[in-house]
Amino acid sequence: MAYSSTEKILRDQGIRCTRPRIAIYECLASIEGHPTAEDLHSIVCDRYEHVSLATIYNTLTVFEETGLCRKISSSAGSRFCSADSQGIHVHLRIAGQDELVDLPLEYSKLFEGLLDEGLLEQLGRSLGMDINGLQVELLAHQHDDQA
């Protein structure tokens, strides 16, 4: 039986494939930025079928636990998700705004050379954990002439 690429991704993580999970992952992976669970709920319901908000939250929790997405908290307590869970992920947070922006990839790559490659593995071993990635959040204040 041939599986779609999304089904393969889910199965490779040991996640049971259901229509809602496939729809949620495909929407999450296709969205730029960091949608909230509520944003994702609206998009999934528009593109596919009605899925309850509880199913969205439960599925995101499964995805987070298996490394398919990451949860990012904002100052307002919003829950942002990103399907990009590999490598160093760099965000820019602008003070006074509840917005989180991905740093352009060419700048994010500059952070990769700052860490010894074995450091996260060594840290994980000493803590008895698997460290799956690194998030960097840059905090910025807009200049008055740019506001």
List keywords for this structure.
6 helices, 147 residues, 5 strands, Dna Ligase, domain 1, single chain, alpha+beta, Arc Repressor Mutant, subunit A
Mean pLDDT score, rounded? 82
Just give the CATH class of the largest domain. Answer: Mainly Alpha
Q: In angstroms, what separates the terminal alpha carbons?
A: 55 Å
Low confidence ranges: none
How is this structure best described in words?
The chain has 147 residues and is α+β, with helices and mostly antiparallel strands. It has 2 domains: 1-85, Orthogonal Bundle (Arc Repressor Mutant, subunit A); 86-147, Dna Ligase, domain 1 (2-Layer Sandwich), CATH 3.30.1490. Helix content is 42%, strand content 17%. The protein is built from 6 helices and 5 strands, in the order ααααββββααβ. It has helices spanning 5-12, 19-30, 37-47, 53-66, 105-112, 119-127, and strands spanning 70-73, 79-82, 88-94, 100-102, 134-140. It has a 3-stranded mixed beta sheet, with helices on one face. A two-stranded antiparallel sheet has the order 1-2. A hairpin with a 5-residue loop joins strand 1 (70-73) and strand 2 (79-82). It is globular and about 45 Å long. The model has no long low-confidence stretch (mean pLDDT 82).
